[in-house]
């Protein structure tokens, strides 16, 4: 109910209550959840006029609002302006900005942000890494997607199925069927479970390269969930 939150904030001076940073944070977060990025930015600007210093919560909520609206340019501008407010960006700030770049295929900027995190000793999390992998996937940068997946292990960030799926899909789109199958085969070693997307992307990579024998050979070494999912997909495709 961002409208109600905004109305309550506006009525505070009438009852002689000065809105503070916590009041603004609550309303900015409500606007972010309600998809009201313009209101979120307007509130952030009004905090400065009222000499109420934004904090990490204010900035992160505003960046996230821009990310959800596909306004990657504004998300990056906010990230860059945080030092002006004497607020140090954290992993949430960077993750939201990288996610904003991911949605519109700005993979180069996503990678720059990820490197900036490492340079500032801000440890990336699974959200920032997954968004960067997805950005590379959408841009057909399969080799970078694989490098990012390997980087996660070095940073002790456990990949999720979605991370691996993004890398497999990147390989599929670039015709790298060997890498796609190797990733599918590595999923059990990562102690995560493959899903329909994992198997479907690997199958599509083999189909594109006309490597049916390679897929059959891999399936002979896969068991359990991966075999069941892949068998279902093959059966569905044969109908």
UniProtKB/TrEMBL annotation:
Keywords: Repeat. It comes from the Eukaryota. Pfam families: PPR, PPR_2, PPR_3. InterPro entries: PPR_rpt, TPR-like_helical_dom_sf. PPR repeats lie at residues 20-54, 55-89, 125-159. This is Pentatricopeptide repeat-containing protein, chloroplastic. It comes from Alexandrium monilatum.
